[in-house]
Structure to design on (63 residues):
């Protein structure tokens, strides 16, 4: 597993979804390097990088 994070910082006043975390190995198998599709792959989200990673790991455990 190769967990990567992205600081998205959407242009909204709510800062609870500033970070996303994903498994790069899973995304590479998808074939689309820009794919962060929640429907196809688990993508963690959080206010901090650590929260996003924790959310991703929880989603992967649930699958």
């Amino acid at each position: 597993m190769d967990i990567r994070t992205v600081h998205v910082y959407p242009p909204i006043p709510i800062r609870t979804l500033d970070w996303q975390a994903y498994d790069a190995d899973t995304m590479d198998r998808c074939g689309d390097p820009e794919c962060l599709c929640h429907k196809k792959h688990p993508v963690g989200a959080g206010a901090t990088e650590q929260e996003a990673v924790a959310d991703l790991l929880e989603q992967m455990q649930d699958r």
Observations:
- The beta strands are 3-7, 19-23, 44-46.
- The CA atoms of residues 5 and 21 lie 4 Å apart.
